[in-house]
C-alpha cells in the first residue's frame, strides 16, 4: 500500500501561505505530515558549498532550534540543502523537503539522498512534490518547485550561491511573494558569495546568527512554543534538574544537594539539557535555565 497522500489546494490541510502565491500548485503529493499552518523558513544554497557554508548552515540551524520552533524547508539537493535537512533533524526541528521529482523512493533525486528523505518522514516531517509518482527530474521541474519552497515559508535564507545558482531563483520568488530574504555574507574572493551579496545590495537582510532571522520575522513567542515542546520529551531526571535551576543559577554541588543525584548523573543530564537549548553554563560554573 502506498504511503503517498494527495492534498488539493481546496483542502483544509493545504498550507495556507502556499495558497497566497502566484500560480500555487493545485495539488501536492505528500509523504509524511504536511500542516495547514506552521511557521516555516526556507534555507537554500549551492550544491558545492565551502566548509564555511556548511559550518554556517549548521550554526544557524542549531541556534534556530534554541530560539524558535520554525519548520525548516529546503529542496533535498546535495550541498547546502542536505546540510539544512541534516541540521534540522539533528536539532529536533521539523523539516520539509520539496522535490522536483515524484516523492516515491524509486524516483527521488538525487538518489544518494533517498535515506535522508526517509529520515525526514520518520522524524515527523514531510517530503512533497507537485509531480506524481514516478515523475523524473526534468530540468524545468527544479526552478518550478522553487516557488513552493519559498511559498511555504515566511522567508528564505540564502547560504552561498553562484551567479547562476537555482537558490537565486528561490530568493527572487520569495521577494515576489512578499516574503523576507536573508543572506549570509561571504568572502569577496569567493564566487559562492555572488548571490548573497547581490541580494544584500538589493535590500535583503544580512544575517550572522539565527537571532537576526527571528527578530526580523517578529516571532518571539516561538521560543516558548519550543520550550513547551521539548519539555514534553524530557526524562524525569531532566525535568527535576530543570525545575531545580529554573528559579536561580546553581552549581553542580548545589544541584546535587537539592536533588540527591550523583555527580556523574547530574553532569550527563546537564549535557543533554544544554544540547536541547534549555540550560547553559555561566562563567562562574553555575548552570542557568533558559
From TrEMBL:
Residues 6-217 form the Smf/DprA SLOG domain. Residues 234-282 form the DprA winged helix domain. InterPro entries: DprA (IPR003488), DprA_WH (IPR041614), DrpA_SLOG (IPR057666), WH-like_DNA-bd_sf (IPR036388), WH_DNA-bd_sf (IPR036390). One of its GO terms (biological process) is DNA-mediated transformation. It comes from the Bacteria. Transmembrane segments: none annotated. Gene3D superfamilies: 3.40.50.450, Winged helix-like DNA-binding domain superfamily/Winged helix DNA-binding domain (1.10.10.10). SUPFAM superfamilies: MCP/YpsA-like, Winged helix' DNA-binding domain. Belongs to the DprA/Smf family. This is DNA protecting protein DprA.
Amino acid at each position: 500500500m502506498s504511503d503517498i497522500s494527495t492534498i488539493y489546494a481546496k483542502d483544509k490541510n493545504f498550507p495556507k501561505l502556499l495558497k497566497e502565491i502566484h500560480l500555487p500548485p493545485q495539488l501536492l503529493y505528500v509523504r509524511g505530515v504536511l500542516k495547514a499552518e506552521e511557521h516555516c523558513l526556507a534555507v537554500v544554497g549551492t550544491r558545492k558549498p565551502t566548509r564555511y557554508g556548511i559550518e554556517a548552515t549548521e550554526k544557524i540551524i542549531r541556534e534556530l532550534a534554541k530560539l524558535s520552533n520554525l519548520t525548516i524547508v529546503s529542496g533535498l539537493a546535495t550541498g547546502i540543502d542536505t546540510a539544512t535537512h541534516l541540521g534540522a533533524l539533528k536539532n529536533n526541528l521539523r523539516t520539509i523537503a520539496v522535490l522536483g521529482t515524484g516523492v516515491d523512493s524509486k524516483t527521488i533525486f538525487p538518489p544518494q539522498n533517498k535515506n535522508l528523505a526517509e529520515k525526514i518522514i520518520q522524524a515527523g516531517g514531510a517530503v512533497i512534490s507537485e509531480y506524481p509518482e514516478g515523475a523524473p527530474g526534468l530540468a524545468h521541474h527544479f526552478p518550478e518547485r522553487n516557488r513552493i519552497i519559498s511559498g511555504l515559508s515566511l522567508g528564505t535564507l540564502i547560504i552561498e550561491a553562484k551567479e547562476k545558482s537555482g537558490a537565486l531563483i528561490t530568493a527572487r520568488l520569495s521577494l515576489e511573494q512578499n516574503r523576507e530574504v536573508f543572506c549570509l555574507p561571504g568572502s569577496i574572493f569567493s564566487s559562492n558569495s555572488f548571490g548573497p551579496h547581490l541580494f544584500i545590495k538589493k535590500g535583503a537582510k544580512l544575517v550572522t546568527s539565527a537571532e537576526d532571522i527571528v527578530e526580523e520575522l517578529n516571532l518571539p513567542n516561538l521560543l516558548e512554543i519550543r520550550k513547551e515542546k521539548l519539555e514534553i520529551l524530557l526524562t524525569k531526571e531532566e525535568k527535576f534538574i530543570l525545575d531545580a535551576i529554573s528559579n536561580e543559577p546553581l552549581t553542580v554541588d548545589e544541584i546535587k544537594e537539592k536533588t540527591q543525584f550523583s555527580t556523574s548523573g547530574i553532569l550527563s543530564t546537564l549535557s543533554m539539557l544544554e544540547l536541547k537549548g534549555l540550560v547553559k553554563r555561566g562563567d562562574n560554573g553555575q548552570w542557568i535555565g533558559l
